[in-house]
Amino acid sequence: MRVIFPGYLKDTAGRIELETIPETRLESVDDLIARVAGDNTCLSGALSHPSIHVIINKSIPAGDELPDRIDEVAFMPPLSGG
Amino acid sequence: MVRVQSEIFDPGDELNSFMAGRAAAGAVVCFTGHVRGFAKDKSVNALELDHYSGYTESEIAKIRDTAHRRWPGIESLIIHRYGRMIPGEPIVFVAVTSEHRQAVFEAATYLMDHLKTSAPFWKKEIRSDGTVWIEPTDADYAAGQDRDNNAGD
Questions:
Q1: How far apart are CA A61 and CA A67, in angstroms?
Q2: How far apart are CA B46 and CA B112, in angstroms?
Protein backbone atom coordinates (compact mmCIF):
# COMPACT_ATOMS: atom_id res chain seq x y z
CA MET A 1 0.00 0.00 0.00
CA ARG A 2 1.32 3.38 -1.02
CA VAL A 3 0.53 6.27 1.34
CA ILE A 4 0.66 9.88 0.14
CA PHE A 5 1.00 12.95 2.36
CA PRO A 6 0.38 16.11 0.31
CA GLY A 7 0.60 19.64 1.63
CA TYR A 8 1.59 20.31 5.22
CA LEU A 9 1.18 16.64 6.13
CA LYS A 10 4.43 15.87 4.35
CA ASP A 11 6.14 18.13 6.88
CA THR A 12 4.38 16.33 9.73
CA ALA A 13 5.16 12.90 8.31
CA GLY A 14 8.68 13.89 7.33
CA ARG A 15 8.16 12.47 3.85
CA ILE A 16 5.84 12.81 0.86
CA GLU A 17 4.96 9.12 0.73
CA LEU A 18 5.69 5.74 2.22
CA GLU A 19 5.10 2.10 1.38
CA THR A 20 3.52 -0.09 4.02
CA ILE A 21 2.10 -3.58 3.74
CA PRO A 22 -0.98 -4.22 5.88
CA GLU A 23 -0.76 -7.52 7.72
CA THR A 24 -4.48 -7.79 8.22
CA ARG A 25 -7.57 -6.35 6.59
CA LEU A 26 -8.21 -2.76 7.64
CA GLU A 27 -11.74 -2.34 8.93
CA SER A 28 -11.98 1.43 9.28
CA VAL A 29 -10.26 4.74 8.72
CA ASP A 30 -9.16 4.61 12.36
CA ASP A 31 -7.46 1.26 11.66
CA LEU A 32 -5.82 2.79 8.62
CA ILE A 33 -4.51 5.78 10.56
CA ALA A 34 -3.20 3.53 13.32
CA ARG A 35 -1.36 1.39 10.77
CA VAL A 36 0.11 4.35 8.93
CA ALA A 37 1.08 6.43 11.96
CA GLY A 38 2.35 3.59 14.13
CA ASP A 39 3.90 5.05 17.27
CA ASN A 40 4.05 8.57 15.85
CA THR A 41 1.41 10.30 17.97
CA CYS A 42 1.99 13.63 16.27
CA LEU A 43 1.24 12.10 12.86
CA SER A 44 -1.69 10.14 14.24
CA GLY A 45 -3.22 13.33 15.61
CA ALA A 46 -2.66 15.16 12.34
CA LEU A 47 -4.21 12.39 10.23
CA SER A 48 -7.22 12.16 12.58
CA HIS A 49 -8.02 15.85 12.30
CA PRO A 50 -11.55 16.41 10.92
CA SER A 51 -10.22 18.65 8.16
CA ILE A 52 -8.28 15.75 6.63
CA HIS A 53 -9.95 13.88 3.77
CA VAL A 54 -8.96 10.31 3.03
CA ILE A 55 -8.75 9.29 -0.62
CA ILE A 56 -8.48 5.57 -1.31
CA ASN A 57 -7.39 4.22 -4.67
CA LYS A 58 -7.79 7.79 -5.98
CA SER A 59 -11.49 7.91 -5.03
CA ILE A 60 -13.45 9.28 -2.10
CA PRO A 61 -14.65 6.23 -0.14
CA ALA A 62 -18.40 5.78 0.25
CA GLY A 63 -19.12 5.69 3.96
CA ASP A 64 -16.80 4.41 6.68
CA GLU A 65 -16.16 0.95 5.27
CA LEU A 66 -12.87 0.45 3.51
CA PRO A 67 -12.47 -1.59 0.31
CA ASP A 68 -10.92 -5.06 0.58
CA ARG A 69 -7.93 -4.01 -1.45
CA ILE A 70 -6.15 -0.73 -0.83
CA ASP A 71 -3.34 -0.01 -3.24
CA GLU A 72 -3.01 3.68 -2.48
CA VAL A 73 -4.28 6.08 0.14
CA ALA A 74 -3.84 9.84 0.37
CA PHE A 75 -4.49 11.98 3.41
CA MET A 76 -5.50 15.33 2.00
CA PRO A 77 -5.35 18.51 4.08
CA PRO A 78 -7.60 21.44 3.13
CA LEU A 79 -6.87 22.45 -0.45
CA SER A 80 -5.04 25.64 -1.27
CA GLY A 81 -6.67 25.68 -4.69
CA GLY A 82 -5.04 26.58 -7.98
CA MET B 1 -7.52 19.46 -22.60
CA VAL B 2 -6.04 19.48 -19.12
CA ARG B 3 -2.29 19.62 -18.49
CA VAL B 4 -0.68 19.50 -15.07
CA GLN B 5 3.04 20.07 -15.36
CA SER B 6 6.08 21.43 -13.59
CA GLU B 7 7.56 23.06 -16.69
CA ILE B 8 7.11 26.77 -17.28
CA PHE B 9 4.96 27.70 -20.29
CA ASP B 10 4.49 30.68 -22.57
CA PRO B 11 0.86 31.87 -22.44
CA GLY B 12 1.10 33.47 -25.89
CA ASP B 13 2.38 30.30 -27.49
CA GLU B 14 -0.27 28.24 -25.73
CA LEU B 15 -3.05 30.55 -26.89
CA ASN B 16 -1.83 30.53 -30.48
CA SER B 17 -1.57 26.73 -30.51
CA PHE B 18 -5.00 26.38 -28.92
CA MET B 19 -6.64 28.63 -31.50
CA ALA B 20 -4.86 27.22 -34.55
CA GLY B 21 -7.36 25.74 -36.95
CA ARG B 22 -10.44 26.87 -35.02
CA ALA B 23 -11.96 28.92 -37.84
CA ALA B 24 -15.49 28.65 -36.43
CA ALA B 25 -14.53 30.23 -33.13
CA GLY B 26 -15.77 33.79 -32.88
CA ALA B 27 -14.59 34.40 -29.34
CA VAL B 28 -11.81 33.36 -27.02
CA VAL B 29 -11.10 34.33 -23.44
CA CYS B 30 -7.84 33.43 -21.81
CA PHE B 31 -6.63 33.98 -18.28
CA THR B 32 -3.10 33.59 -16.96
CA GLY B 33 -2.40 33.54 -13.26
CA HIS B 34 1.08 34.54 -12.13
CA VAL B 35 2.94 33.99 -8.89
CA ARG B 36 2.60 37.13 -6.77
CA GLY B 37 5.68 38.62 -5.23
CA PHE B 38 3.92 39.62 -2.03
CA ALA B 39 1.33 38.26 0.40
CA LYS B 40 -0.16 40.18 3.30
CA ASP B 41 2.57 42.83 3.10
CA LYS B 42 5.29 40.18 3.14
CA SER B 43 7.52 39.60 0.16
CA VAL B 44 7.29 36.15 -1.38
CA ASN B 45 10.54 34.67 -2.63
CA ALA B 46 9.04 31.52 -4.12
CA LEU B 47 5.93 29.36 -4.22
CA GLU B 48 5.88 25.60 -3.91
CA LEU B 49 2.80 23.82 -5.18
CA ASP B 50 2.08 20.22 -4.23
CA HIS B 51 -0.32 18.10 -6.22
CA TYR B 52 -1.54 14.51 -6.04
CA SER B 53 -0.52 12.98 -9.33
CA GLY B 54 -3.41 11.36 -11.16
CA TYR B 55 -6.04 12.58 -8.73
CA THR B 56 -5.37 16.27 -9.37
CA GLU B 57 -5.72 15.76 -13.12
CA SER B 58 -8.98 13.83 -12.73
CA GLU B 59 -10.49 16.44 -10.42
CA ILE B 60 -9.62 19.25 -12.81
CA ALA B 61 -11.14 17.21 -15.64
CA LYS B 62 -14.37 17.01 -13.62
CA ILE B 63 -14.42 20.81 -13.29
CA ARG B 64 -13.82 21.10 -17.04
CA ASP B 65 -16.54 18.55 -17.84
CA THR B 66 -19.06 20.45 -15.72
CA ALA B 67 -18.24 23.67 -17.56
CA HIS B 68 -18.63 21.97 -20.93
CA ARG B 69 -22.05 20.64 -19.92
CA ARG B 70 -23.20 24.05 -18.70
CA TRP B 71 -21.94 25.91 -21.73
CA PRO B 72 -22.35 23.49 -24.64
CA GLY B 73 -20.17 24.21 -27.64
CA ILE B 74 -17.20 25.62 -25.77
CA GLU B 75 -13.71 24.20 -26.09
CA SER B 76 -11.10 24.71 -23.42
CA LEU B 77 -7.48 24.36 -22.44
CA ILE B 78 -6.39 24.28 -18.79
CA ILE B 79 -2.73 24.27 -17.82
CA HIS B 80 -1.68 24.18 -14.19
CA ARG B 81 1.84 23.97 -12.85
CA TYR B 82 3.19 22.33 -9.74
CA GLY B 83 6.59 22.45 -8.09
CA ARG B 84 8.69 25.48 -7.22
CA MET B 85 8.00 28.79 -8.93
CA ILE B 86 9.23 32.32 -8.48
CA PRO B 87 7.23 35.56 -8.58
CA GLY B 88 6.26 36.62 -12.07
CA GLU B 89 6.14 33.12 -13.48
CA PRO B 90 2.85 31.83 -14.89
CA ILE B 91 1.17 29.25 -12.69
CA VAL B 92 -2.21 28.66 -14.36
CA PHE B 93 -3.64 29.22 -17.82
CA VAL B 94 -7.25 28.87 -18.90
CA ALA B 95 -8.46 29.44 -22.44
CA VAL B 96 -12.06 29.00 -23.56
CA THR B 97 -13.37 29.43 -27.08
CA SER B 98 -16.77 29.24 -28.70
CA GLU B 99 -18.83 30.96 -31.36
CA HIS B 100 -19.95 33.82 -29.13
CA ARG B 101 -18.48 35.85 -26.29
CA GLN B 102 -20.97 35.40 -23.45
CA ALA B 103 -20.39 31.69 -23.02
CA VAL B 104 -16.61 32.02 -23.04
CA PHE B 105 -16.57 34.82 -20.46
CA GLU B 106 -18.87 32.87 -18.16
CA ALA B 107 -17.15 29.53 -18.63
CA ALA B 108 -13.66 30.95 -18.13
CA THR B 109 -14.77 32.61 -14.90
CA TYR B 110 -16.41 29.39 -13.75
CA LEU B 111 -13.26 27.39 -14.46
CA MET B 112 -10.99 29.79 -12.60
CA ASP B 113 -13.34 30.11 -9.63
CA HIS B 114 -13.42 26.35 -9.22
CA LEU B 115 -9.73 25.83 -9.84
CA LYS B 116 -9.14 28.30 -7.00
CA THR B 117 -11.20 26.30 -4.51
CA SER B 118 -11.58 22.72 -5.71
CA ALA B 119 -8.43 21.75 -7.58
CA PRO B 120 -6.24 19.48 -5.41
CA PHE B 121 -3.23 21.70 -4.92
CA TRP B 122 -1.42 22.75 -1.77
CA LYS B 123 0.54 26.00 -1.82
CA LYS B 124 3.47 26.88 0.36
CA GLU B 125 4.75 30.42 0.23
CA ILE B 126 8.42 30.93 0.96
CA ARG B 127 8.31 34.43 2.43
CA SER B 128 10.93 36.71 3.79
CA ASP B 129 9.72 35.86 7.31
CA GLY B 130 9.34 32.09 6.89
CA THR B 131 7.19 29.54 5.09
CA VAL B 132 3.39 29.35 5.19
CA TRP B 133 0.92 26.78 3.84
CA ILE B 134 -2.01 28.56 2.18
CA GLU B 135 -5.75 27.80 2.28
CA PRO B 136 -8.47 29.32 0.06
CA THR B 137 -9.95 32.56 1.33
CA ASP B 138 -13.61 33.11 2.16
CA ALA B 139 -13.79 35.29 -0.96
CA ASP B 140 -12.54 32.38 -3.08
CA TYR B 141 -15.26 30.10 -1.70
CA ALA B 142 -17.91 32.78 -2.16
CA ALA B 143 -16.93 33.35 -5.80
CA GLY B 144 -17.23 29.64 -6.55
CA GLN B 145 -20.62 29.45 -4.82
CA ASP B 146 -21.92 32.48 -6.73
CA ARG B 147 -20.81 30.96 -10.01
CA ASP B 148 -22.59 27.69 -9.15
CA ASN B 149 -25.80 29.54 -8.32
CA ASN B 150 -25.74 31.66 -11.47
CA ALA B 151 -24.55 29.05 -13.96
CA GLY B 152 -26.91 28.65 -16.84
CA ASP B 153 -28.90 31.81 -16.05
A1: 8
A2: 22
Strands B75-81 and B2-5: parallel
- B53-65 tens-digit pLDDT: 999 999 999 999 9
> How much is the ipTM here?
0.86
Residues contacting residue B72 through CB under 8 Å, at least 6 positions apart: none
B7-13 own/partner pairs: CB under 8 Å, 24+ apart:
B7/B81, B8/B81, B8/B85, B8/B89, B8/B90, B9/B79, B9/B81, B9/B90, B9/B93, B11/B90, B11/B93
Closest alpha carbon to B123 in A45, A14, A6, A47: A6
Residues of B in contact with A8 (CB under 8 A): 122, 124, 133
Check whether domain A2-76 has CATH 2.40.100.10, yes or no: no
Are the beta carbons of A82 and B116 separated by less than 8 Å?
Answer: yes
Residue B49 with chain A: CB contacts under 8 Å: 80
pTM of the predicted structure, to 2 decimals:
0.87
Query: Which residues have C-beta within 8 Å of that of residue A40, sequence separation ≥ 6?
Result: A13
Q: In 3D, which of B4, B14, B86, B8 has the Cα closest to residue B50?
A: B4
CATH superfamily membership of B2-148:
Molybdopterin biosynthesis MoaE subunit (3.90.1170.40)
Structure confidence by residue, pLDDT tens digits, A22-62: 667 788 888 889 888 888 899 999 999 888 989 999 988 87
Top-confidence residue, B104 or A30: B104
